[in-house]
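idk why but the lab printer keeps eating my pages so im just putting this in chat instead. protein + glutamic acid:
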Amino acid sequence: MKLRKVTAATAAALVLALTATACGGDDGDGGSDSTGGESGGKKIKVGIKYDQPGIGLKSPDGKFSGFDVAVATYVAKELGYAEGDIEFIETPSAERENALSRGDVQFIAASYSINDEREKSVDFAGPYLLAHQDLLVKADSDIKSGTDLNGKKLCSVTGSTSAQNVKEKIAPKAQLQELGTYSECIEGLASGQVDALTTDDSILAGYAAQEQYKGQFKLAGLELSNENYGIGVKEGSDLKAKINTALEKMVSDGAWEQAVKDNFGDTYENEPAPKVGTVVPPKA
Ligand code: GLU
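predcted complex ->
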């Protein structure tokens, strides 16, 4: 098993100053007409998470950071959009398929795992990161395995693979509380209302490294699933092929590795870059 470590140090965040710009209706294929910008007046709406440090975070000053933000920015540039032409929109876990189908966003980079169920309604480019479901517990907790969760209070997020896996496979007898976002769960863990929080190790490591939680939590290090992060697009969109080309370039020119260093630092020991088009199957 690959060792993962969470240190007290907070990951150096790649802070991208992005201008949120209002724009009109979209053309369903990567952009919408507006004025200004380096892409001939086109803007692009991109779905990310707003509350996952190291992955997708909107700071109080309005700036965006995280690995997904870096990947989305790189991809948008390859599609012809400068940073100032990107409008980031929050897409919580349960809203992602709807946001794509309605055309609210042109693509989503939001810790969004590729799976068969989701592929019924949206398409995925990638994968661009392999993460694994894990547990975050209090530093002195005796929870060490998935089955230890049975009978315990566990928090996860509606519409996530993590909540689904707990109910179906990992601990069907856990008292699962499903909230709208992981930041609500982490508050419950800190206050003792829940015994554990479950989602991807990439997300949990970011929370554990936050200044205000220093030393309070630990990851169980269980690799309970394979979570292949993909970039979601509307079903049938020709953006999928273009985004795949951009992701391949991001890996080959070193920008992917740099984004890993900038955003995970020593908080998260990531898997190597996945091969675009190759999804690691879920664990049995
Ligand atoms: N990667 C998992 C998923 O797509 C969990 C993280 C999330 O909810 O964004 O469901």
